[in-house]
Amino acid sequence: MKIKGKHYRTIWEKPGDNTTIRIIDQTLLPHKFEIVNLRTVDDFATAIKDMLVRGAPLIGATAGYGMYIAALNAPKNDYFSDFINISAKKLISTRPTAKNLEWAVNEMIGAIQSENTIDGKIGAALAKARKIADDDVEQCRKIGVYGMDIISEIFQKTGKRVNILTHCNAGWLATVDFGTATSPIYHAFESGIDLHVWVDETRPRNQGAKLTAFELGEQGVPHTVIVDNAGGHLMQHGLVDLVIVGSDRTTRTGDVANKIGTYLKALAAMDNNIPFYAALPSTTIDWEMEDGIKNIPIEERNPDEVRFIDGLNSGEIKNVLVPPEGSPVANFAFDVTPARLVTGLITERGICKADKNSIMELFPEKNEVK
Ligand code: MRU
After folding, report:
1. How many other CB atoms are found less than 10 A from the CB of residue 221?
2. How far is the CA of 165 from the centre of ligand 1 (A)?
3. How far is the CA of 239 from the centre of ligand 1 (A)?
4. Which one of 11, 169, 276, 305 would you pick to mutate in the ligand 1 pocket, going by the greatest count of ligand atoms within 8 A of its CB?
């Protein structure tokens, strides 16, 4: 998608030097635009852990390139495999909830093991990292093509501007391009459908207010930032036609883990008879997991993210303390919306109900997994 009219992906190889991988430092957006070079496995682990890159699909694509850099930097002797295994563990330990991270690392290990020579392993790793990124773009594009039908149907039925509520950033910045929840929005907008997006600010890190608002604005999509608790009120007053969110991990039964607060939006949507969709590539699906509430690992982040809030003040990014100095704080980063509250899943293979049978109908090859 575009920033100041120029097309970017969220991760790319430095032109003429594929030993350096580039990302946008998302901790600085929307107030500063900085490109960061990643050259070591530690650079990649830090970029994921400190959320310079974030969003399940982009975390996966970054881990893919991180494993390629691991192959490139590994000692070219008997310790090659040890270095690969240590790097894999280091990357997987950065963030626990997004399934795409573990998936991408395992894909990379498979590619590296498929070759016998060190040069072959490095070549296979680069090809696989590129494929993970390219596939994500194509999957998100298809999510947009399928998902825009939902928006278009509402538009045809009402003949009025379609109001869509989204939570966190499941936009192109959370993927390699297009986004998951935002891809149907971008596709519908491009096709001329009159729409408007309610953007939950998404405390504590404000990915909605900072990233979703930024990227929608850069593509010219009408939007309004709201506080996290406004959604229910808007729904009660007919101001929301549709909710679309992303997902960090979706079980084979259709339970959806996403940014903290998503569950409450789903409850309010159900109470107001408003369709609630999760948009996700199949790389986000945990094919072995049945019970999301019991089993999806929920990341607990640094309490300072709740205690402090940052933003622009007189041209500089400043941090301020919100609660009393000594108040204890908890920071759960994700929650799980049970499948019964999810109208449907928008995937790269089409839209299905959030239940085991419907998911397996779209992905029949996964029946063998369990
Ligand atoms: O903590 P973050 O910013 O990585 O959380 C991101 C989200 O919750 C997204 O909604 C999710 O990863 C889906 S991204 C397409």
Report:
1. 20
2. 15
3. 25
4. 169
Relative to the CA of 280, which ligand 1 atom is closest? 15
Query: Rounded to whole angstroms, how far apart are CA atoms 165 and 299?
Result: 24
What pLDDT does residue 369 have? 57
Instruction: Say whether pLDDT at 370 is over 70.
Output: no
Residue located via tokens 């590539």: 281
Q: Which residue's CA is minimally distant from atom 15 of ligand 1?
A: 170
Tell me how far the alpha carbon of residue 75 lies from the centroid of ligand 1, in angstroms. Answer: 35
**What pLDDT does 298 receive?**
98
Residues 194-202 have a mean pLDDT of 98
Active site residue 135: no
Q: Where are the alpha helices (DSSP H) in 6-117?
A: 41-49, 56-73, 80-92, 99-113
Q: What does the pLDDT average to over 243-249?
A: 98
- pLDDT per residue as tens digits for the range 73-84: 999 999 999 999
Q: Roughly what angle, to the nearest 10 degrees, separates helices 182-190 and 118-158?
A: 60
The number of CA neighbours under 13 Å toward the Cβ of 254 is: 23
Asked if 253 and 292 touch (Cβ cutoff 8 Å), the reply is yes
In a mutational test of the pocket of ligand 1, which residue from 10, 94, 165, 258 has the highest number of ligand atoms less than 8 Å from its CB?
A: 258
Mean pLDDT of 136-149: 98
Of 43, 135, 177, 248, the catalytic one is: 248
Q: What is the pLDDT of residue 270?
A: 98
pLDDT for 367:
86
| Phi, psi (deg, nearest 5) at residue 328 | -65, 150
